[in-house]
Amino acid sequence: MSIKNIKNLFSNETRQKTEKYWLVICIVYAALRTILVNYIFGKHGVNPWGYFACDLVSSIFFAKFSFGLITAWVDNDKSKFRLYLILTATSFFAPDLYIFINGQSVPHTTYILFFMYLIGATVITLLSLMSDYRKKRTNQ
Question: Over its length of 140 residues, how does the chain's per-residue pLDDT go in tens digits?
Fold first, then answer.
């Protein structure tokens, strides 16, 4: 699929609808993640309602910034892309800071597994972005 076709898929009307759906998906993901965090970290002092509040707010920003990241990529706007990349990463990791700040006597193995998840998710995302960027450059 060429860049021109991708841009046609992302008309202003389509972008607005897609952004709304993406926001709902991010909020549902936050709720599901809260259940998992409560199961793993609840017994270690992490309040699930506090985490959910943090994750809910972060999810709203994450949805906005990550959608901006994709549209900046489609529009080939490198400065916006870099800005949205930083903002997306910050809003993605913000709820995890809540766990580190509020977790008490969390076993080291739990933190190691948690870090492995974060590193794995980050690496997969970056590799996907780099692959898509390379494909985009060869199609131009």
Answer: 455 555 555 677 788 888 899 999 999 999 999 999 999 889 988 999 999 999 999 999 999 999 998 888 888 888 999 999 999 989 988 998 898 888 888 888 888 888 898 888 888 877 777 776 666 666 65
Q: pTM to 2 decimals?
A: 0.75
Phi-psi region of 76 (alpha: psi -120 to 50; beta: other; left: phi over 0): left
Place of tokens 């309040």: 47
Report which of 67, 61, 57 is spatially closest to residue 22, judged by C-alpha positions: 67
Q: Is the separation of the CB atoms in 81 and 72 below 8 Å?
A: yes
User: Structure tokens of 36?
Assistant: 């998992």
Quote the CA–CA distance of 50 and 48 in Å, as a whole number. Answer: 5
Spatial distance between the Cα atoms of 40 and 89, rounded to a whole number of angstroms: 23
Angle formed by the axes of helices 108-139 and 48-74, to 10°? Answer: 20
What's phi and psi for 86, nearest 5 deg? Answer: -65, -45
Dist. CA 12–CA 5, nearest whole Å? 14
